[in-house]
């Protein structure tokens, strides 16, 4: 999916919500454990209940890999299900990969060839040659960790060099040269609030993947205030707050209610910014 199509979907659905499919076998409704594939059954119901309210899904690989082969199968089935039933959804494999070139090549192959997923999150720490193999796929997206949502973002990302440039700023400035705005997005945590202004000074046009609203307490209003651009430029992820809204048979309907609340706020913010 290209940038124009993504923006068209945002306008049509009046939403820039990404639902995070972080399905933890210990947190999903426990009655699902009697199913043959509880994680896929859970995901399928969440997807069916939210697909008209969001433009993207982000399964985080940790939740699947932790279950071994069964988890990987549930991941593949989830991706296939989205692609076959909701082809307008942008799929993000949240894998935070990145390694020496020949290894990254294989990571890229698994997500972009084997699974044909739209995008993958990548850690930039190992530099250009660790990210480049992902960029060899012209219609796919690489989502580079820029300024993360967690407390530990302060350990390294805010350290400054002799010119006063912070590490996250250097990451954005340097890595945006590795490919065009049609292939690279950046992760910026919703918890970083006003710092979106600093991010936008360096990458005014890029799409940003923004986790950290909901369970981590980031403010959607602030993200929009400081981070939106003329093509919206934001995919705001919420995982736990949406997918764990209920524990009984009606869990998917409760997830939908949560997603609807976020989508309604997004609609009014898009209207306020004259984008719809
Ligand atoms: O790359 C990410 O998606 C990510 C980056 C970041 O800085 N912070 C962050 O929370 N995430 C992911 O976004 C999701 C957030 O989940 P919730 O806090 O439950 O909404 C998880 O899958 C995290 O791994």
TrEMBL record:
- Keywords for this entry? Decarboxylase, Lyase, Pyrimidine biosynthesis
Q: Which InterPro entries match?
A: Aldolase_TIM, OMPdecase_type-2, OMPdeCOase_dom, RibuloseP-bd_barrel
Active site annotated at which positions? Answer: 96
SUPFAM superfamilies (UniProt xref): Ribulose-phoshate binding barrel
Q: Give the catalytic activity.
A: orotidine 5'-phosphate + H(+) = UMP + CO2
Q: Which SMART domains match?
A: OMPdecase (SM00934)
In terms of Gene3D superfamilies, this protein maps to: Aldolase class I
* Family to which the UniProt record says this protein belongs: Belongs to the OMP decarboxylase family. Type 2 subfamily.
UniProt-listed CDD domains: OMP_decarboxylase_like
Protein name as catalogued: Orotidine 5'-phosphate decarboxylase
A Pfam family of the record is OMPdecase
EC annotation?
Answer: 4.1.1.23
According to UniProt, this protein's pathway is: Pyrimidine metabolism; UMP biosynthesis via de novo pathway; UMP from orotate: step 2/2
Enumerate the spans annotated as Orotidine 5'-phosphate decarboxylase domain.
Answer: 16-255
NCBIfam families in the cross-refs: pyrF_sub2 (TIGR02127)
What is an example of a GO molecular function annotated in this UniProt entry?
orotidine-5'-phosphate decarboxylase activity
A GO BP annotation: 'de novo' UMP biosynthetic process
Q: What class of enzyme is it?
A: lyase
């Amino acid at each position: 999916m290209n940038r124009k199509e993504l923006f068209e979907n945002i306008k049509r659905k009046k939403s820039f919500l990404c639902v995070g499919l972080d399905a933890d076998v210990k947190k999903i409704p426990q009655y699902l454990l009697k199913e043959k594939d509880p994680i896929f059954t859970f995901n399928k119901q969440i997807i069916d209940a939210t697909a008209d309210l969001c433009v993207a899904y982000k399964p985080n690989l940790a939740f699947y890999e932790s279950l071994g082969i069964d988890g990987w199968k549930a991941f593949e089935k989830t991706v296939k299900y989205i692609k076959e039933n909701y082809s307008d959804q942008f799929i993000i494999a949240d894998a935070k990969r990145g390694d020496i070139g020949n290894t990254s090549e294989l990571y890229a192959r698994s997500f972009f060839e084997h699974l044909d997923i739209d995008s993958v999150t990548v850690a930039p720490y190992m530099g250009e040659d660790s990210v480049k193999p992902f960029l060899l796929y012209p219609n796919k997206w690489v989502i580079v960790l820029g300024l993360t949502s967690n407390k530990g973002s302060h350990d390294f990302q805010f350290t400054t060099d002799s010119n006063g440039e912070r590490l996250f700023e250097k990451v954005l400035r340097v890595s945006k040269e590795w490919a065009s705005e049609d292939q690279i997005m950046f992760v910026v945590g919703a918890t970083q609030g006003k710092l979106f202004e600093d991010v936008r000074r360096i990458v005014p046009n890029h799409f940003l993947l923004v986790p950290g609203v909901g369970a981590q307490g980031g403010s959607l209003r602030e993200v929009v205030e400081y981070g939106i651009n003329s093509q919206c430029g934001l995919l705001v992820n919420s995982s736990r707050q949406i997918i764990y809204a209920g524990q009984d048979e009606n869990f998917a309907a409760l997830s939908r209610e949560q997603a609807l609340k976020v989508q309604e706020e997004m609609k009014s913010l898009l209207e306020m910014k004259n984008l719809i």
